[in-house]
Design brief:
about 450 residues; alpha/beta; six-stranded mixed sheet; 16 helices; about 20% strand; elongated; binds flavin-adenine dinucleotide
């Protein structure tokens, strides 16, 4: 590393590791500063289901799926009712296939296309994932690649607490605070803020996303909003601060993810009165606040043996059922007894759902896809709504450059993932599966790719 410091400093070893690896591939020296010694287990990338969208990927072509960045962009704009930032959504849709192929080719991440079910809002099968469908395996792999790369140094635990600029407003260094309170100032010309959003900052959550503030937070404890604080000190603009990814199916007992594959394969959600209360397939993110507003703010996911077997491809689901969170019953009355829900309501709802699934009747909530007809034996898992991460943050352009309130770029400053504004519009309903990791890995990739020519 030269006297001028590393070519790039990355704050945050989640999706930010992609920037480090991409920059090293381009011949640059990188320092990664990570606040948590346990990041490989505790950050959001590690906690995720590892679903990464790639529109037009080679796996899709091999499976005969015709997809394109434009089609993905159309899905994003439809799901967000036109409110997502078009320029950013377009850049991420465009880079998505390149990203998954680069992860497989350059980082040797063993990715495959998910073809056994479709997530709400995606018009094509385009989510790519790793064995076990869990982010811990993916992050472990990225961290190993970083450790093997001589151009990358890693400093952990250490917190990036400030970024400085010269008299022209160009980035010239960072402040790093060690756990003992000592401070280091390191020169650099480029900084990526990949420190995630503000989900762990209760005051900010209550201010920006009050509808989900009472729900359980199921994300990294280090998502304290540091990027917003640092960026704003430098005059950066922020946007979409009311956007978040919720999830309606966190196991109450195990505090692990039950997952929405349960629903997409044909499961239903009942509230504590034993009643369905909406079209579950609209999306797990928006269903979190809907469930939070039901009596007791909890409910049950009901599935059958066939759905159970299909969901075992998810490590999270395996952990949930291994913990004993699922109750089983041979028939509808037995399910009411096992869950403690009112028997008449349970029998009525399950019988009605069988009629909707077989096409005899239509669902008053408008759900059109039931996967298959639910038949006993049944399993039910008690669920609570959760906040996974926030989606608003620093305004960035298509190269992840942080922009000031007047629209000009702060030269040398980049943001990705939860630190940057996302592509999910406002609120929770615009979130499409994969659109947490895509801005995390994709903006990191774009930032590093642009460095070689633009910032150095
Ligand atoms: C259970 C769950 C499942 C999910 N599944 C999916 C999915 O399948 N697909 C999808 O697209 N999204 C998913 N998401 C969302 C996705 O995980 C996040 O959007 C994404 O991982 C955010 O990446 P990031 O790099 O911004 O943050 P993180 O991965 O959280 O990384 C940020 C890192 O920065 C560190 N840090 C914080 N502050 C500082 C600082 N000041 N200095 C240095 N380091 C700092 C933190 O310790 C952390 O390691 C899921 C989320 C959860 C919780």
């Amino acid at each position: 590393m030269s006297e001028d410091g590393p070519d790039l400093i990355v704050a945050g070893a989640g999706g930010g590791l992609v920037a480090a690896l991409r920059a090293a591939e381009l011949g640059l020296d990188v320092l990664v500063v990570e606040a948590s010694a346990h990041f490989k287990r505790g950050n959001n990338t590690a906690m995720s289901t590892a679903m990464i969208p790639g529109a037009g990927s080679r796996w899709q072509r091999e499976a005969g799926i015709e997809d394109s960045p434009q089609q993905f962009l159309d899905d994003v704009m439809r799901k967000t009712k036109g409110s997502a930032d078009h320029r950013l959504a377009s850049a991420l849709a465009e880079v998505s296939a390149t990203l998954v192929e680069w992860l497989a080719n350059h980082v040797r991440l063993p990715l495959s296309l998910v073809t056994d079910f479709s997530y709400p809002g995606h018009s094509q099968l385009r989510c790519h994932t790793v064995e076990g469908r869990h982010g811990s395996g993916m992050l472990e792999h990225l961290a190993r690649a970083v450790a093997d790369e001589p151009r990358i140094d890693m400093l952990t635990p250490a917190r990036l607490t400030d970024v400085s600029v010269d008299s022209d407003g160009v980035v010239d260094g960072v402040t790093i605070t060690m756990p003992d309170g000592s401070v280091d100032v390191v020169p650099t010309r480029a900084v990526l803020l990949a420190t995630n959003g503000y989900g762990a900052n209760a005051a900010m959550v209550a201010e920006h996303v009050p509808e989900i503030a009472a729900a359980r937070y199921h994300g990294s404890e280090h998502s304290a909003g540091d990027a917003l604080t640092i960026g704003r000190r430098l005059g950066a603009e922020s946007a979409y601060l009311d956007a978040y990814q919720g999830h309606a199916a966190l196991s109450k007992q195990a505090t692990t993810l039950v997952g929405w594959a349960t629903v997409m394969h044909g499961g239903i959600v009942l509230d504590t009165s034993g009643r369905r209360f909406g079209d579950e397939t609209t999306g797990y993110s928006e269903y979190a606040a809907i469930l939070a507003a039901r009596p007791g703010s909890e409910g049950w996911v009901v599935i059958d043996r066939s759905i159970y077997d299909k969901c075992m491809s998810f490590k999270d689901f395996q952990q949930t059922v291994d913990s004993g969170a699922a109750v089983w019953a041979d028939d509808m009355d037995g399910l009411a007894t096992a869950t403690g829900l009112p028997p008449a309501a349970v029998v009525e709802e399950l019988t009605a759902v069988q009629r909707y699934a077989s096409g005899e009747d239509s669902d008053p909530f408008g759900r059109s896809s039931f996967g298959h007809t639910l038949t006993g034996p049944y399993a039910a898992i008690k669920i609570v709504p959760a906040l996974f991460h926030t989606q608003g943050g620093l305004v960035v352009d298509e190269n992840a450059r942080v922009l000031r309130t007047d629209g000009s770029a702060i030269t040398g400053l980049f943001a990705s993932g939860g630190a940057a504004m996302g592509i999910s519009g406002h609120g929770a309903a615009g979130y499409l599966a994969g659109n947490g990791l895509l801005p995390a890995l994709g903006l990191a990739y774009l930032a590093a790719s642009s460095l070689r020519t633009k910032e150095l």
